[in-house]
């Protein structure tokens, strides 16, 4: 290892040793509480819709409702405040997915509705769709193979 | 007898909410630990979760979690992966090979369309604010 | 080849000593709402509470702040815009949008420069070279930054619900303009030396930990300044870095400790002075071109004029990453420039 690399290694060790500590325990408690609460909101809507619609439709309506809530709370500027203390508790639920679509849409509005809102909307959520859809296709294909060739 | 049924229904519902809270909360905690302890950014954690949800449903495992915890399993992002994979599998059973491509997106079309639409509408009305 | 400009002398590898009386004749600082609520609030010339500054976008807002700083400076200095030979300005935005928007209606010859958060020292240092050499009489050095435009460009949309890690710093919304000219009176602080930094890279890849990335650059430039000028730490009443923040400042202390160097006075940092971490939730401190520029222009400039301090070495540091740097898996190149400013 030459002198320059050695200096870099030493410095990185120094940085690590002096890192400010995240209070991960507190973050986890908050993530648990907020995440759980958001899921309960979803459960409430699911129960409500299930009284009027068949199960599958009720599920879709629940997703749409949760997405609307996330989108609306993002628009009024509340969701980022929730996210600041809830962390994963607001990122992981589907409301967080809506937040990740609406926040760049609002931000890039100044760059026009076609190229600003239209293309930047998927800045953060795009990878979720790419990997989610691709994985489901692979799962579907594997399932097909297993079905057609049960010997596998 | 009638009162017992109402009480029982109330207790069942409360159990539902408790299970949803616990499971949903725990999935979020896993996400929080990944964000705090690893170099993964939150966007990468979401990609990981949606992929895992799809894979777990491939093995039929996530279905069991959904039956147990309801919204506690479907609201967090692995639930989106679960939905995509479930759709793909069901469509393959119905129409064969092509179903792998059509099933996932058609089952989650409601959510995806809502996200696009509401994203657009909300951006028409609101502006970004400083913190 | 040693270049010898009239009046200026090059010392060692990196330092320019100005032989004539290059002074910061006046300066004007404009800041945003949060900065106007911080510990230094009374020192700034103007606080603009509207984050849009009456404009349609963050980029235009930042340009407006910079435009106000420059025009108010010219007004207060009693100069006509025609008498200003040159503007040297820079900011964080792609292609220096803020500086270009700001200068659009000023009709003054313009040079744009990029030094990220070290732009204050870079612009004032270069302005001093123009003035000391006699090529220009009145030069304005200016810089700006804006929390919202910086977040949009370098990090995440404002409404995204993410948590800010404890090493993250808060980009200052503000602008500062400095009038550099030759002055013989002892009223205005003089720029005596400009040490040009070199690009370093100590392997930090995290754009949320700029303090750690920049600390080695501050260390390197400070050591070079002392080696070139043959001065020691005790020469200065105050040595202050730009925006290392709490994390970077601590690391700089450690780097000096490792070399066995102690100072008689405390090492300060503009990023630490700008905000109150207890009440303002600003993480590891302030950052942005305006951090060092506004803290110096508003606060330290007054302390120099009052002779509370007489000799300051200010070392603004810059993290020279682009939007792609982190995605490409690259670490962050950094730089620090130093200005020795003294009242004689």
TrEMBL record, chain A:
<feature type="transmembrane region" description="Helical">
    <location>
        <begin position="85"/>
        <end position="102"/>
    </location>
</feature>
<feature type="transmembrane region" description="Helical">
    <location>
        <begin position="60"/>
        <end position="79"/>
    </location>
</feature>
<feature type="transmembrane region" description="Helical">
    <location>
        <begin position="122"/>
        <end position="146"/>
    </location>
</feature>
<dbReference type="Pfam" id="PF03862">
    <property type="entry name" value="SpoVAC_SpoVAEB"/>
</dbReference>
<keyword id="KW-1133">Transmembrane helix</keyword>
<keyword id="KW-0472">Membrane</keyword>
<dbReference type="InterPro" id="IPR014203">
    <property type="entry name" value="Spore_V_AC"/>
</dbReference>
<keyword id="KW-0812">Transmembrane</keyword>
<dbReference type="InterPro" id="IPR005562">
    <property type="entry name" value="SpoVA"/>
</dbReference>
<protein>
    <submittedName>
        <fullName>Stage V sporulation protein AC</fullName>
    </submittedName>
</protein>
<feature type="transmembrane region" description="Helical">
    <location>
        <begin position="29"/>
        <end position="48"/>
    </location>
</feature>
């Amino acid at each position: 290892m030459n002198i320059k690399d050695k200096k870099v290694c030493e410095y990185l060790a120094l940085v690590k040793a002096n890192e400010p500590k995240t209070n991960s325990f507190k973050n986890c408690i908050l993530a648990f509480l907020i995440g759980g609460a958001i899921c309960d909101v979803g459960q409430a809507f699911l129960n409500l819709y299930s009284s009027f619609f068949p199960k599958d439709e009720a599920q879709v309506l629940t997703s749409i409702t949760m997405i609307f809530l996330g989108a609306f709370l993002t628009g009024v500027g509340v969701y980022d405040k929730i996210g600041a203390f809830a962390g994963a508790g607001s990122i992981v639920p589907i409301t967080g997915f809506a937040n990740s679509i609406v926040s760049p849409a609002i931000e890039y509005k100044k760059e026009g509705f076609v190229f600003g809102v239209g293309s930047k909307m998927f800045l953060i959520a795009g990878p979720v769709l790419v990997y989610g859809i691709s994985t489901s296709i692979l799962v579907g294909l594997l399932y097909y193979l297993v079905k057609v060739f049960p010997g596998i | 007898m009638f009162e017992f049924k109402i009480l029982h229904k109330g207790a069942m519902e409360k159990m539902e909410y408790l299970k949803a809270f616990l499971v949903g909360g725990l999935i979020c905690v896993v996400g929080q630990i990944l964000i705090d302890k690893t170099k993964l950014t939150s966007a990468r954690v979401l990609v990981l979760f949606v992929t895992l949800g799809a894979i777990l449903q491939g093995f039929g495992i996530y279905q069991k979690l959904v039956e147990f915890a309801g919204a506690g399993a479907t609201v967090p992002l692995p639930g989106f992966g679960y939905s995509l994979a479930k759709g793909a599998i069901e469509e393959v059973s119905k129409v064969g090979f092509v179903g792998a491509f059509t099933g996932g997106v058609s089952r989650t079309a409601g959510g995806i369309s809502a996200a696009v639409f509401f994203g657009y509408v909300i951006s028409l009305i609101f502006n970004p604010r400083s913190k | 080849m040693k270049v010898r400009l009239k009046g200026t002398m090059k010392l060692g590898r990196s330092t320019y000593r100005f032989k004539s009386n290059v002074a910061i004749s006046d300066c004007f600082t404009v800041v945003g709402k949060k900065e106007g609520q911080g510990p230094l609030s009374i020192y700034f010339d103007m606080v603009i509470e509207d984050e849009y500054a009456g404009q349609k976008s963050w980029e235009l807002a930042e340009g407006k702040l910079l435009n106000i700083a420059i025009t108010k400076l010219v007004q207060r200095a009693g100069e006509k815009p025609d008498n200003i030979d040159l503007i040297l300005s820079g900011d964080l935005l792609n292609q220096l949008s803020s500086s270009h928007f700001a200068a659009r209606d000023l009709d003054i010859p313009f040079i744009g420069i990029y030094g990220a958060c070290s732009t204050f020292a870079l612009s004032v240092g270069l302005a001093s070279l123009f003035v000391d050499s006699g090529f220009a009489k009145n030069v304005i050095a200016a810089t700006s930054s804006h929390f919202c435009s910086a977040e949009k460009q370098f990090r995440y949309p404002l409404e995204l619900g993410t948590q800010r890690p404890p090493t993250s710093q808060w980009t200052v919304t503000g602008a500062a303009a400095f009038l550099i000219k030759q002055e013989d009176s002892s009223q205005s602080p003089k720029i005596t030396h400009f040490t040009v930094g070199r690009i370093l890279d100590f392997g930090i890849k995290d754009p949320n930990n700029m303090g750690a990335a920049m600390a080695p650059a501050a260390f390197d430039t400070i050591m070079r300044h002392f080696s070139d000028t043959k001065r020691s730490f005790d020469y200065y009443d105050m040595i202050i870095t730009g925006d290392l923040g709490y994390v970077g400042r601590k690391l700089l202390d450690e780097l000096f400790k490792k070399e066995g160097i102690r100072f008689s006075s405390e090492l300060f940092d503009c990023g630490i002075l700008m905000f109150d971490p207890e009440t303002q939730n600003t993480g590891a401190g302030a950052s942005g071109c305006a951090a060092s520029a506004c803290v110096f222009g508003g606060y330290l400039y007054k302390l120099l004029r009052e002779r509370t301090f007489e000799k300051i070495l200010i070392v603004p540091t810059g993290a020279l990453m682009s939007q792609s740097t982190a995605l490409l898996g690259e670490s962050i190149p950094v730089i620090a420039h130093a200005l020795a400013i003294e009242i004689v």
